[in-house]
Amino acid sequence: MAELEGGGLGAELLILDVTDDRTIAAAAGHVAETHGRLDILINNAAIVGDGLPASRVSREAMLRTFDTNAAGVIAVTNAFLPLLRASQRPRILNVSSELGSTRLVNDPEWQYTSVAAAAYQASKSALDMLTVLYAKELASEQIPVLSVSPGYRATGLSGQPTPGAGDPAEGAAAIVAVALATESPTGQFIDDAGEVVDW
């Protein structure tokens, strides 16, 4: 936080819990009172669940993971939509993962085809569907909505070592590049190389 402020970015720390509607409403209210608009919403909160395959995942793990990774995105997006509508150039980015792609997971040649974290992967599939639904609904208002992937990064999301994972800062930079791009498609999945992926 201090580094951002030192860089002249005027960063402001605002804490909310995507599973707690009260904190979401309070955050949206603060932004409304302080700034009156929101230009870019990046939905980045996610949990991995219990990391188990579909045959072993529990109902509790599925519900908890979907609450954060999908329902939380709906709650936050809907709370901030009035502020996005007040922007001259609004956009919504949902941080997703190629692990939610049914096409890629079904591809025997894909390098991560053996991954089977059912709660996480299914929630990211749901998130990508929400991206498409919001994109279609908000197209007439010219609010682009995208799924973006940071790539395989050592973020500590799973709580396990991540051999071969890249620098999280590079994944974040890729997402920021999409957020700040002059033109944005809508209803698409953008990978960490900035390419549109058929997912």
Automatic annotation (TrEMBL):
What's a BP term from Gene Ontology annotated to this protein? secondary metabolic process
Organism for this UniProt entry: Mycolicibacterium arabiense
Write down what this protein is called: Short-chain dehydrogenase
Q: Which family does the entry's similarity section mention?
A: Belongs to the short-chain dehydrogenases/reductases (SDR) family.
Question: InterPro entries given for it?
Answer: Fungal_SecMetab_SDRs (IPR051468), NAD(P)-bd_dom_sf (IPR036291), SDR_fam (IPR002347)
Q: Which GO terms describe its cellular component?
A: cytoplasm
Molecular function (GO) terms for this protein are: oxidoreductase activity
Give the Pfam families listed for this entry.
Answer: adh_short (PF00106)
Query: What SUPFAM superfamilies does its record include?
Result: NAD(P)-binding Rossmann-fold domains (SSF51735)
Q: Which domain of life does the UniProt lineage start with?
A: Bacteria
